[in-house]
Amino acid sequence: MSGEDRRAVVRTAAAIGIATGTYGISFGVLSVAAGLTVAQTCAMSLLVFTGASQFAAVGVLGAGGSAAAAIAPALLLAGRNALYGLSLVPVLRGRIGSRALQSQLVIDESTAMARAQDGPAAARFAFLATGISVFVCWNAGTALGALAGTGLASPSALGLDAMFPAAFLALLAPQLRRPGAPAAAIAGAVIATVLVPVTAAGVPILASALGVVAGLAVRHRSLRRARP
Amino acid sequence: MTWSALLLLAAGSYALKATGPVALGRRQLPAGAVEVLELLSIPVLAGLVAVQTLNSGGELVLDARVPAVAVAGVLVWRRAPFLVVVFAAAATAAVLRLL
Prior knowledge:
- The complex is a heterodimer of chains A (228) and B (99).
- With 228 residues, chain A is mainly α.
- Chain A is 74% helix and 0% strand.
- Chain A has 2 domains: 3-161, no CATH class; 178-228.
- Chain A has 11 helices and no strands.
- Chain B has 4 helices and 2 strands.
- Classes of the chains: A mainly alpha (228), B mainly alpha (99).
């Protein structure tokens, strides 16, 4: 990997880090608005370090759900990190201790950057550069947002409750181009909406995962049709 | 949220991330499992959008969040940056509640 290639990767990693940092600020604000302390908010970004899951957990808590109801959808959303980790097995080599540390950096951005490179050495460099950049910026942003958020007025008067669904929509949209994805999204939204009045908080979001069945059905039908 | 719940979430998230690099080595998941994992985040995110837009203490409610999320939807479609989408939604809801 040439010095020029490395510099290009570092520039991209820094840009991704800054973008994620601003997103970390909104997480810090929302987490404190949902009732977590500043210390808990910062600990969550350090230890959980998966944006969508963290937003999901504080979203359920902010809406009055129990801790158990908050953890379930957060772990469902974190399920894709397991897939990323599996795809990164050839990239993340070294001793078990070093692999264990690097595992914490397995997220959307670091995986996407690793996949965009040619060869395992470049992939490893891109994974680490992006993972470290995002980790530093995400945690700095969270701390800033959490500290600013404690001074804020009523969350709903400021429209902070509308930030959650807007954030999830922005995370969802780029994924909708995959086959079966729109059907899975519609099914998930319908299941969750129908269950809101009849189940405990958190259950509708957990049950929305069943929308995956509609997505798989559509995907398999379109694959069959594509075959000659 | 209690500290023990937070640590449980952290442990679960980490276990998911570390499964491949630490535990599984070079063994592969079955193709069906990979397909489900790939799609799983999509209905969950859509469910989150619906619930966070319409739920108010266990009831379905149409309030300022609905136009706010509609504004967010237009901005996402126009490929606006993440922060613009999120703060435009907050501003829409805040302004509607002032009126």
